[in-house]
Amino acid sequence: MANPDPKTIVKEAGTVAVVGLSNDPEKASNEVGAYLMEQGYRIIPVNPKEDEVLGERAYDTVADIPEQVDVVDVFLPSEKTPEIAEDAVRAGAKTLWLQESIESSEARRIAEEGGLNYVENRCMRKTHEGMQ
Fold first, then answer.
1. What does the pLDDT average to over 4-29?
2. Average pLDDT over residues 99-115
3. How far apart are CA 98 and CA 6, in angstroms?
4. Cα(100)–Cα(75) distance, rounded to whole angstroms?
5. Residue of 48, 97, 103 whose CA lies nearest to 71
6. Which contacts of 1-6 are long-range, i.e. CB under 8 A and separated by 24 or more positions?
7. Adjacent-strand bridge partners of 57
8. HEC profile for the chain?
9. pLDDT score of 1 more than 60
């Protein structure tokens, strides 16, 4: 399956699960999550160390989210991404998105075999800003 342009994914997304979303405002995940929220996206934090981030309930895993997610946006090391890809496929997400400097051929294989769009080594915020 050919992946659509990342800008198309950003334009069509409504709900974004941010994996690794931190309450620390110094962390990129917090800054990007807050930005996406300001732009009107529904942000769902995925972080087993947090109960709530950016005023939203946090979930331990993508699989625990009780609603449909468009994009699973990942801020964790590459070696953790195959497991997240499996959760994203099971959850019926549309896209697995790995942030800048995160790449995984295994996560790509799992996502694409599961019918998901796949983006790696790219910032969702920068992609959105580039559309403005």
1. 96
2. 97
3. 11
4. 9
5. 97
6. 1/112, 1/115, 1/117, 3/117, 3/118, 3/119, 4/117, 6/97, 6/119, 6/122, 6/127
7. 52
8. CCCCCHHHHHHHCCEEEEECCCCCCCCHHHHHHHHHHHCCCEEEEECCCCCEECCEECECCHHHCCCCCCEEEECCCHHHHHHHHHHHHHHCCCEEEECCCCCCHHHHHHHHHCCCEEECCCCHHHHHHCCC
9. no
Domain map of the chain by residue range?
6-129
37 φ, ψ (degrees, to nearest 5): -60, -45
Q: What is the mean pLDDT of residues 56-66?
A: 97
Fold exhibited by the domain 6-129: Rossmann fold (3.40.50)
Q: In this predicted structure, what is the pLDDT of residue 125?
A: 97
Residues 19-32: pLDDT tens digits?
999 999 999 999 99
Distance CA 74, CA 85 (A): 10
Model pTM?
0.96
In the beta sheet, which residues pair with residue 40? none
Supply the pLDDT for residue 52.
97
pLDDT attached to residue 132: 81
